[in-house]
Amino acid sequence: MFDTNLLKTFLAVVDARQFTAAGTILGISQSTVSQHIRRLELACGRPLLERDTHAVSLTPDGAVLADFARKIIDASRQAVDFFAGSAPRGRVRLGISEEITLTRLSALLREIGQAHPLLSIELTVGLSSALFQKLDGGGLDLVLAKRPAGDDRGIVVHRERPLWIAHQDFRLGAGDAVPLVIYPTSSITSSLAMEALVNAGRAWFVACSSESLNGLRAGTLAGLGIMAQSRLLLGDPEGQLVAIGPEAGLPELGAFDFVVVGRSARMSGAIGTLADLIVEKSPALWP
Predict the structure, then answer these.
(1) Pair 167, 244 in one domain
(2) In the chain, how many domains are there?
(3) Residue whose C-alpha is closest to residue 155's, from 143, 166, 167, 163
(4) In 3D, which of 42, 5, 2, 43 has the Cα closest to residue 26?
(5) Are 73 and 21 contained in the same domain?
């Protein structure tokens, strides 16, 4: 059995790449750090670190142990939390806007599940405006979505300016009426598109509408019109969706914020734990 104290010292050295810095982080002396590493290498029967006058690096066996050590310490912490009754548990009703399903959302959910296996997530995917309405009506506990105009709630995790997007073969003259592919109900991106066109004095009409992002994508791929959406839509495997160039004379679109927001400003328990994790990990969702 590996002593978790030795493993913690080992990981501190791995992360700091110096014995002295690792000792400072842990609040122990450099000689104690050296003793811990020596005891760990004796337990493994193999050298774990390569030392020189400037820094410390991992041997191949050390790299393997570092991976094991992180898992052992994480499992030990989860076990302590569980039996201490402090591990977050329970169901959280989480709303996610459709665009975010095009990001590393599955990786984020996997990390959450590994860190807090007692949390149960009930996932709802939909329009941001609809998610906020459901949150306000008590149907959701937490939302990660675009923040509606005039709403100052939530913690901003990403700011984005949407693009005019069309099929690669679609052509639009600078004086042509703009065929829009939009949601039939109120949405943040559709409102931005219509407001920008009206302010620019540009004629437009609804060429295709759909309640789902997949429907908008299909209509745009079919060449029925253009949509104002997140640049995440450009990640089409076949590369058929492209951002429209300046030759079309389209106006600039405003920006919007993705936020994490709960039913109240102060979140605790399972909801607070999940909110904190999402705020921490969300920046990695967008390329």
Answers:
(1) yes
(2) 3
(3) 143
(4) 5
(5) yes
